[in-house]
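>> received
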Amino acid sequence: MKTSRTVTPTHSLAALALAISLVLAGCGGAEPPAEGEASEAETTAQAEKGKTDEKKVDAVPVEVAAVAKRPIAASFTGTANLEAPGEAQVVAKTSGVLLQLLAEEGDQVKAGQVLARIDPERPRLEMERARATVRKLENNYRRSQELLESKLVSAEASDQIRYDLEAARAAYQLAQLELSYTNIVAPIDGVIAARAVKPGNLIQLNSSLFRIVDTSRLEAVLNVPERDLATMQEGLTVRMTADAMPGDVFEGVIDRVSPVVDAGSGTFRVVTAFPGGEGLRPGMFGRIEVVYDQRSDALTVPRSALLQDAGETAVFAVRDSKAVRVPIELGHLSGELAEVRKGLVEGDQVVTAGKVALRDGAAVEVLNPPTAASLDAAQVADAAKAGR
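>> returned
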């Protein structure tokens, strides 16, 4: 007799659960890390990267220059137009028609040289009439003297003839002078800068005919601030460059210094003199430099390194890759250089470009570290002499 085996539902569910557990165990292994967690190595790498990025952001790129000893000159610079102190307007001293023109613009003339001639006929006739009057009165006076000795004429009548003769002689001299005015002559040596008449023109008394300029000496007037009154002395050498002659430098001297300061402008006049004949012309615009002090070994920095803050002058010095604000005491300023009397020593590095973004203590990255090629020629020569 066969017995039948019945499978209950409870047994089937237990077997299914066991199978699922085995499958999961075979595929799984270790439990995965929780979401948002990172390994220790990854955390360290990210921290180092953050520090590197922070350094790159904080380092300000700058350019520097070395504090060095160089020659420097203290000077005042100004602009002025050249003027000719020797200048004359030639005017007509008599009237008449211009017959001859004997000089033109650009001609060199001497004092007393005839430049033009006015028709002399009328003045000549006036002179002849005055001379005839003089001769007549001379004869009358001679006869009156003879008659006076014979008591045939009174002394009063003889004296009257003598007075008339003296007046006639003065009129004759005046007529001679008037005739001489028909020759227009140069009053000074120089060059004719302008001619205002032509032959055939009717010349009026006191009308301007020529302008003569003496170019052998030229002057330029500077209006200097009153703070420089003590530094401007007669005889100091000055240098001038003219826009019309680029590259040429002309030397002159201070000729006169005004002792009076203009109350309105706060300036005083300094007259500088230059020799002519070197291409300079009256009216040229020039830039003039007056050098009143020179030093051969002054401690200097580029003027581009200077900071002006609340009346205090300072620079940013680079020390240990950081910018340090250093107050300094300035001396002379000349061109692109500034003399430093206190605050820095030779060899210090000062920031010349990139100052706007700097703060005291900020990290910097020097874009132009000093090299042997960037040394001044004077420093190289000194190093060679010392055997370095």
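>> Helices lie at 9-27, 40-58, 121-149, 155-180, 377-386.
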